[in-house]
């Protein structure tokens, strides 16, 4: 999703009763003071090496180079990347990348903590992915490790590795977005797709995309529960705005009306199944769907809008036990019934007495 200059989210604070207050425009680049939850907050502070002074010495080459990086980021960041730097810790920065349309990462938020070494730019910056314990990509490990030639954590040709005279942090972030969080991440793994048998590799890639989308949905839940510091309002705003598209994608993917990663940005899809979907994927999304609805509602997504969407999805449902509100659901496993029950509880829906049921909206609490 691209954010235009005229429609930027506002940065928000959370009050003692959990209400979100919008206080200012959330800029793509900004300078802050609180770096307390940064992964590298203790880096460059415990060593006695004299090079540490380079971060506070205004005349040092390292300080000047980092200031140049700030200017590049402020001027050239794409709409889908947001960066925060710290006035009292210029060696640290935090970036969030919005997952691109046409990939299984679409509409997700992916946070990276970056630290400049004391001899920067002789060595590349350290990059840590805030994974919440999930490995969503062959290059992004559950422990936060980022494998990328540009930061010298993965083998590559000389032209692909860090060049102290030319490489920048902006290039690192754009490389992660374009080369790592891409359309078919399965092929990021060395050796995948190199041998004959294109059909089998494509099947494995599609299956991997299903796994990635499930993990991305889990990441959305973790982010809304524990958003990184200084991004609380942005996280809430983002998922409030994208809730309908994400939920529509869940339904389109599980019904086979769209291949994972290829759901149109407006939430539309084919009216009939066009791809095969694994039972494993259907079951996992069925478990996550009510949790996503609940999280989006807490972030401020319109409950009435979600209910209307469920009505639309009910009409276009095409597979047995789909994760949408239906008048009648027949499923021996009982999974669909449990999911529908959770959805109705989340959205404040009641069953009327009698053989059939209908959707009824509750008034939202003030």
Automatic annotation (TrEMBL):
Give the protein name, as stated in the record: UBC core domain-containing protein
InterPro entries assigned to the protein according to its UniProt record, in alphabetical order:
UBC, UBQ-conjugating_enzyme/RWD
Native source species: Hevea brasiliensis
SUPFAM superfamilies, A to Z: UBC-like (SSF54495)
Indicate whether Transferase appears among the record's keywords: yes
Keyword list, A-Z: Transferase, Ubl conjugation pathway
Q: Does the keyword Transferase apply?
A: yes
Matches recorded under Gene3D superfamilies: Ubiquitin Conjugating Enzyme (3.10.110.10)
* UBC core domain span: 61-221
